[in-house]
Input
Amino acid sequence: MADEVQDKRSIASYFTKKVVVSLSAVATVLTIVAGIWAFEAHYATNSRVDGVAIAAEQKVEQLEIQLAGAFENQQHKSNAKYWQFMLERLMKDLSELKRQMRRYPEDEILREDYRALQERIKEVRSKLDQALEKIK
Output
């Protein structure tokens, strides 16, 4: 029980750190762009303002596209980590269930649980494979 709580906390901590890092990156990029834009707007002549504004907008658009790609890639990696964690958990449960089946070979409920667990492991492996494919 304590392991499950610790595992959930570590997953939550992992995702929280990733969100904080991502938001920090966005804030940094926007601050730099806004600072450059403000500096240029203050010292630029009227004839250069339009060119600077257009260049800044284009640069912001490029950065937004790059940032969106980075967020998407990070999400795929997070999904893959989640499914790897779930698979590890299910494999531990399977191991424990096999031990119980050796102790009580006649128990039909254990056999049903074993079949259901095997199906769940197949589903999780499939989702993990899909997540790993999206990373590539």
Observations:
- The chain is about 95% helix and 0% strand.
- Residues 2-135 form one domain.
